[in-house]
Automatic annotation (TrEMBL):
Protein name: Uncharacterized protein
Transmembrane segments: none
Start-end of Basic and acidic residues biased regions: 24-44, 81-91, 136-177, 185-317
Tree of life domain: Eukaryota
InterPro entries linked to this entry: GOLGA6L
Ranges for region Disordered: 18-317
Family (UniProt): Belongs to the GOLGA6 family.
C-alpha cells in the first residue's frame, strides 16, 4: 500500500488518499487509543509550554547579557523546521485531496497511525534534558554575571580608594605649595633685609672714606706745618743753641707729626679700600638678594602649579 510518511515531533503520520482505502468504522479501541494519544499530546504540550516559558525567560535574561546567542539560533532553527513541516503537511494534504480540519466529521478523509509513542516520550524526555541543560547553562551564566558584577564592584571600590588617595595627595601637594610660597615670602623679606643692610654698609663706607680724606688733608697740612717749623728752626739755630735745641725738639716733633700724618694717610687709604670692599660686598649682597627674590618667585610659581595640579587631581578623583 503506498503511503506518504512525515516525521513530526517524533511521530510518523500515514496519509491516505481518497481512492486508496475507505475510512474505517468507529472502533472503541481506536477511539480510546486516540484519546490516550491526545492526552499524551496535551501533557507534552503543557510541559513543553511551561519549559518554553522558562526557557524564554532565561533566554530574555541571557540575551540581555549576550550569553545565549547559540540558544537563540537553535530555537530559530527549530521554529523554521516546524514551519517547514507544517508546509509539507499542507502540501501532502493537498496532494492527497484533503485539507487540514477537525479530526472528526463527515468530510474528514485522513487517518493518523501513531506508531512511535515510546519514541515520542523519549524525544520529550531528551528535550526536557536539553531544557534542563539550557537552564543549567543559564544558571551558570547568571553566576558568571554575578561574579562579574562582584568584580566590577570591587574594581569600583579600588577606583574610589585610589581617588581618595589622589585627593589626599593633592591636598598634601597643595599644603606643600603653600609652605613653599610662605618660604619664598620669607626668603624675599630676608633678601630685602640683606639689601637694606648692604645699603647701610655702603653708606658707612662712604662716610669712612670721607673721614679718611679729611685725615689725609689734615696730615698734609701737618706736614706743611712741620716744614715751616723746620725752616723756622733753621732760622732760629743762628739765634742760639737754646733755640737750636728747641728747634731740634720741634723738628723731632715735626717728624713725629709727619710720621703720624703718614700713618693717618695710610690709615685713610686702608679705610678707603675697606670702603670699596664694603661697597663691593654691598653690591654682592644686593645681587644675592635679587637672586633670592627671583628664587622665591620661582618657588611661589612652583607652589601655584603644584596647587593647581592638586586641584586637577582632586577634581579628576
Amino acid at each position: 500500500m503506498p503511503w506518504n510518511g512525515l516525521i513530526v515531533i517524533g511521530k510518523r503520520m500515514e496519509l491516505l488518499g481518497r481512492n486508496t482505502q475507505k475510512p474505517r468504522m468507529w472502533d472503541p479501541k481506536l477511539e480510546s487509543e486516540d484519546s490516550r494519544v491526545e492526552d499524551v499530546e496535551k501533557t507534552a504540550l503543557r510541559g513543553k509550554s511551561g519549559r518554553s516559558q522558562g526557557a524564554r525567560r532565561g533566554h530574555s535574561v541571557a540575551s540581555a547579557l549576550q550569553a545565549s546567542a547559540g540558544l537563540g539560533k537553535e530555537r530559530s532553527k527549530k521554529m523554521w523546521g516546524k514551519q517547514e513541516v507544517r508546509h509539507k503537511i499542507e502540501a501532502e494534504s493537498e496532494n492527497a485531496g484533503t485539507t487540514p480540519g477537525p479530526r472528526k466529521g463527515s468530510g474528514f478523509k485522513e487517518r493518523l497511525n501513531f506508531t512511535g509513542g515510546r519514541t515520542s516520550g523519549e524525544d520529550l524526555r531528551s528535550r526536557g534534558n536539553d531544557l534542563g541543560q539550557n537552564e543549567e547553562e543559564l544558571r551558570s551564566g547568571g553566576e558568571k554575571l554575578r561574579l562579574s558584577g562582584e568584580k566590577l564592584r570591587l574594581s569600583g571600590e579600588k577606583l574610589r580608594s585610589s581617588g581618595e588617595k589622589l585627593r589626599s595627595s593633592g591636598e598634601r601637594l597643595r599644603s606643600s605649595g603653600e609652605r613653599l610660597g610662605s618660604s619664598g615670602e620669607r626668603l624675599r623679606s630676608s633678601g630685602e633685609r640683606l639689601r637694606s643692610s648692604g645699603e647701610r654698609l655702603r653708606s658707612s663706607g662712604e662716610r669712612l672714606r670721607s673721614s679718611g680724606e679729611r685725615l689725609r688733608s689734615s696730615g698734609e697740612r701737618l706736614r706743611s706745618s712741620g716744614e715751616r717749623l723746620r725752616s723756622s728752626g733753621e732760622r732760629l739755630r743762628s739765634s742760639g743753641e737754646r733755640l737750636r735745641s728747641s728747634g731740634e725738639r720741634l723738628r723731632s716733633s715735626g717728624e713725629r707729626l709727619r710720621s703720624s700724618g703718614e700713618r693717618l694717610r695710610s690709615s685713610g687709604e686702608r679705610l678707603r679700600s675697606s670702603g670699596e670692599r664694603l661697597r663691593s660686598s654691598g653690591e654682592k649682597l644686593r645681587s644675592s638678594g635679587e637672586k633670592l627674590r627671583s628664587s622665591g618667585e620661582k618657588l611661589r610659581s612652583s607652589g601655584e602649579k603644584l596647587r593647581s595640579s592638586g586641584e586637577k587631581l582632586r577634581s579628576s578623583g
